[in-house]
Design goal:
- Its main location: membrane.
- The chain has helices spanning 2-11, 23-50, 55-72, 84-94, 103-125, 137-159, 169-178, 185-204, 210-225, 252-284, 290-304, 316-324, 331-347, 356-370, 373-382, 384-399, 402-421, 468-482, 499-514, 526-534, 537-541, 550-560, 563-568, and strands at 79-81, 313-315, 425-434, 437-442, 454-460, 486-493, 519-522, 546-547.
- By secondary structure, it is α/β, with parallel strands linked by helices.
- The chain has two domains: 2-417, no CATH class; 424-579, STAS domain (Transcription Regulator spoIIAA, 2-Layer Sandwich).
- A six-stranded mixed sheet has the order 4-3-5-6-7-8.
Length: 583
Amino acid sequence: MPEARAVLRRLSPVRPWFRNRTAASLKADALAGLTNATIVLPQGVAFAIIAGLPPEYGLFTAIIVTMVAAIWGASNVMVSGPTTAISAVLFASLSGLAIPGSAEYIALALVLTFLVGVLQLAAGIAGLGGLIAFISHSVIVGFTAAAAVLIGVSQLGPALGLSGGEGGVLHRLGQLVAGIGDVNPDAIIVAAVTLASLIACTRISRRLPGYIIALVVGSLSAGLLGAGASGVAMFAPLGAILPAFGAPDLNFATIGALLPSAAAVACIGLLEAISIGKSFAIRREEPYDSNQEMVGQGLSNLTGSFFQCYAGSGSFTRSGLNAESGATSPMSAIFAAGFLSLLLVALAPYVRYVPVPAMAAIILYVAWKLINLAEIRHIVATSRTETFILAATFLTGVLSELDFAILVGVVASLSTFLHKSAHPLVAVGAPTMVNGRRVFMNAEAFDLPQCPQIRFVRIEGPLYFGSVEHVAHAFREIEAKDGLKTCILNLKGVGKIDLAGADFILAETRRARIHGHDLHLIAANPSVVTVLERLHCLDVLGHENLHSHKSGAIRPAVVQASDPICKTCLIRCFNECADKPGA
């Protein structure tokens, strides 16, 4: 029953933030929403073009998906809608199945969006939000960089007055080189003026509607050049101004063909949304529920598929602008969707005056901003493992398919996690003085003298079926260096023990006693102690050999140590050695 209530609470349209609205907060949210609407108007068109869809589909997504995700999502300031990465993956997934922009292509995009919504909603209801933590941030960085390269290459042609080409990055570059003789100088001028205007606006103020200003400047420059007469392409009028209801064309053959791509898009969307939502929640010191965000993203895409929307997710650019503009709640995103609808009605007739090279320049700028060079440098400088994950994801995306790149990245990320968990730290410790305190440190790393009869070993990590082989191998390597001894095994850094781990402890206990030594355990975690009891470890080890502190384990081990050997020992490793002969 508690689980059922939790699901109903996540699905309820009555959200906790409703009751906290005031006139002042509504005013702040309305102003932030208006700013957001002016930004997403050209962005929505650009993202739809990247996705291979008519421009209005990006704007519909920025209305419906934004509104639904705001109501059911978990973040106060994150704004959802069309995003560059998902647009690129959708294009890469569907362009081989139908001609981009065609009725068949649009139908496939809506079915894909429906499937993405179902998968995300199911994941949220099942409480799988915690699984996102196992996927490395480097996957997103590498995937986004690969998407940016594909987007940039696809827009080089339109910026030069050529077609965008087809296929992957290398194939498109080859097509671009082959058609270089047909470059249109007027298209280059329009693209350059638009790009320069956009860069100037962003440097003056992030709150300026830079995209709209740049498009206006680009359109005016095209008019002054008479670019239409020289062959510069212009946008066709919007097919519709506001979204209309219509069910996706679902059939088993289409669902089967699109399910792998839908899984990739769903994963990317959740990774984007949850990483953005968490980052803003931490900055603003607000609570965040990953499972609720999954529900919000799932419902937004599921609903959107019935209103001519394609798959969306959280937008870092729009979310950042929303926060900077003073947003206090998800009402700002709802206002943004409403204001966008009004802007569409007012500005739709003027879309036919926008030159294609101007929009291509804006998309090139968006692609460049997607590549986080600072984060890439940080990853490369600090971690070989994360660099491998980043490189595998990026190179797969550039050389193969984007949806396959996310799969490679996730597999590499999970493989790295499993490898780490299967190779916990196994180290021999010895006491030494640090700042007047007696502490245990790595004996090999710090060249510390060890007791000739007692070995102090620490394990940091899980002791389970996946790690037992590594731990056993480490024990044999340690023995090979200085022989068998009574072992004090510190399990304070072990959070999990399973049957294989318990069998390992039993085997080490028997091995030690056969050779005239013993095994003592240090375990303070009640759950670990419970597992040891339940798996009958203590029946063989003996409760007297289980200790909660180092001193409790060292004392009986020293008492059991051979007096003749202690008598000639000059190390006197432990304080308890003072009671042995020869002290």
